[in-house]
Amino acid sequence: MKRNFLFAWYQTPRGKLLRDLEVEYLQKAVTVSCQQNILQIGGLNWENEYIDCDLYKQFTVIDTKGMGADNAQHIKAKAFALPVQSESMDMVIVPHLLEFDTHRFQTMREIERVLKPEGILIIINFNPLSIWVRYQFLLDKKMSDSWRGYFISRSRTLDWLKLLNFEVTSSSKFNLDNFTTKQGRFINDGFSYFYNAYAIRSIKRRYNIIPLTPVTNANKQFSLVNTMNAITQNNSHE
Description:
Blueprint (H helix, E strand, L loop, with lengths): L3 H6 L3 H17 L8 E4 L17 E4 L10 E3 L13 E7 L8 H11 E12 L4 H9 L1 H6 L7 H10 L2 E9 L4 E5 L13 E8 L13 H20 L1
Parallel strand pairs: 1-2, 1-4, 2-3, 4-5
Antiparallel strand pairs: 5-8, 6-7, 6-8
């Protein structure tokens, strides 16, 4: 997994605009309590811009190179084999990691495993149709040589989430100077060539099968009725 293209992109004029928009988005998206557990998979080194790591003591960054804000908790590990207890996280943030992960679907399974039921998942990916992202990829041969990623369409991400029993609650598109968000079951409404990235917010659902109530013994009901009749007859004789 190599993310050199991501950090080289952030140094370009359009990349800096995208970075600022993603900071603004994540500031609004992190809605859990500071006492709850938040896991970010893939360090950025500017986490302090959208989350107060001194306030959120349970904020942990997992990265193979140990990247992440200095005052956050760090774990060096592979995304597809998270050293995290099952159903222990209230929120998982995945910023531009899946498109550089050769084991991306196993990583998704690990995310589902570590999230609590009703836990929140936020995924940010590049728009595979973006003219600007593709242009930057072709323009700079140095970045091209470092590219080991795989663009993931929003529709494919939605399919993965549905397969893993996540309910998508909102989807956002990042343009050059703003981002737009839609709520509800909308979401596969086409895609523009001019959006650089997209974000999806979803909730892990846990569906349990409710067993059928066993049929009670009918003899007991008849016995109860006979008892009531007997009491009534006795009262009438008296």
